Amino acid sequence: ERREGWTWLLAMVLLNPCLVLIDHGHFQYNCISLGLTLGAIAGILSRNELVAAALFSLAINHKQMSMYFAPAFFGHLLGKCLKRKYPIVEIMKLGFVVLGTFALVWWPYLHSYEAAMQVISRLAPFERASQVTK
């Protein structure tokens, strides 16, 4: 009985007309980064902070919209690390996971300076903003 309720709830979330029509129809794919963020929250709730850090790093790399949640994730994970027996080791583990995840995602673009700058210019198109103001 309870499992049927979860199945129905999952179907309602995945088939949400707002996500299907607006998000996918407008080619935004926000639900991917939101799903990764929810996975990171699940990692925190299950006390697996390293998985949470990796999933949230993937969410940030998928869409910078996830940066809205970064202060909360950072504060919570740092606070949990500081309460442990060896806080410096815990912070280093967390940092290694975050930097490792970013390195894996960015690896294909780091073969040249031009390739990395092309990706960054598409992520933060400041040239467009300066053209609008002129």
UniProtKB/TrEMBL annotation:
Key words of the record: Endoplasmic reticulum, Glycosyltransferase, Membrane, Transferase, Transmembrane, Transmembrane helix
Main location: endoplasmic reticulum
Pathway assigned to this chain's UniProt record: Protein modification; protein glycosylation
Residues spanning the membrane: 6-22, 94-110
GO cellular component, as recorded: endoplasmic reticulum membrane
Enzyme category, top tier: transferase
Catalytic activity, EC: 2.4.1.-
Alphabetized GO MF terms: dolichyl pyrophosphate Man9GlcNAc2 alpha-1,3-glucosyltransferase activity
Localization per record: Endoplasmic reticulum membrane
Pfam families (alphabetical): Alg6_Alg8 (PF03155)
Highest taxon of source: Eukaryota
Family: Belongs to the ALG6/ALG8 glucosyltransferase family.
Protein name, entry field: Alpha-1,3-glucosyltransferase
